[in-house]
Amino acid sequence: MRIAQIAPICLSLPPVSYGGAELIVSSLTESLVKRGHEVTLYASGDSKTSARLKSLFKKALGFGKDSPEFCIANANFAFQDADSFDIIHSHIGFYGLPFSKYAKPPVVTTLHNDFTSKNGTFVEYYKDACTFMAVSQNQCKRMKGLKVDGYVHNGIDVDHFQVGDNKKDYLLFIGNISKNKGADTAIKAAIRLRRKLFIVGKIDDAHKLFFEQEIKPFIDNKQIIYEPLADSSRKQSLYGDAACLLFPIDWEEPFGLVMLESLACGTPVVAFNRGSVPEIIVNGKNGFGVDSFEELLKAIEDVKNLDPWNCRKHVEDFFSVEKMTDQYEMLYKKLIQAGK
Question: Rounded CA gap, 256 and 248, in Å?
Fold first, then answer.
């Protein structure tokens, strides 16, 4: 198949330290190339790929600099080649919809983030512009107004991760430092249990006040330790040695890639039952999904009884890049056949 993959332009592919959607696009692209497909990746010029790379921007724009006009220009740049492909896979949200609506080949848009708009006319006009795919069953049910055809769980290259053989007693939080991600809840749990906690993640401008008021006062670099974004080697070390990953989200997160990365390193996850958590965490096998802070505390103590290899096997069986590629490949073939 001749396949176009359209990536966001704020980060180069594959991302160095952060970027869930970018990692998925990169992994899917490389997997499709290995299967013999003719893949063109539309991404920043400093990206690395075995596919054919086409770029409007020589370098990734960076967080907060991918303004709407740049994103629209990037979408236009990619869709001008539409007739050259059997199928187009867009990962750029609503920026691709005006072009998807009139493209000749079928277009798949993966909703890496929830699609929300207060403009009912906008949603109504574009609800059939392409085939929308969610990244979890939970997200699929919540995307009202759009014609969401189904979901494909994200997958990772499990071989890039190693099970830690030197488990320590510390807790780990990796993610955006924002209220809805629950870094403050992780701190409260660590203090209550008298456990060391590593907090790793970026601080967006919109969440600096939250960091200054709710996180920074507790950072002593002894019990509560903060690190900015870590590269893949550092993250793997942190995942592998941790007692568990804390994922105390306070919103319906569409997926949560850090859960897969932690599990692939043999480290169980303790999370609030929101968003995709019940689809990834199997209680008593690879972690615990809980409904209250007190349950969170108990689960943190209980993870010591879980087998690290069961955590990894769950990812291998259900959330590998191969399984994700299988599902998208079948979807592509179905849509191409339907269009003939």
Answer: 11
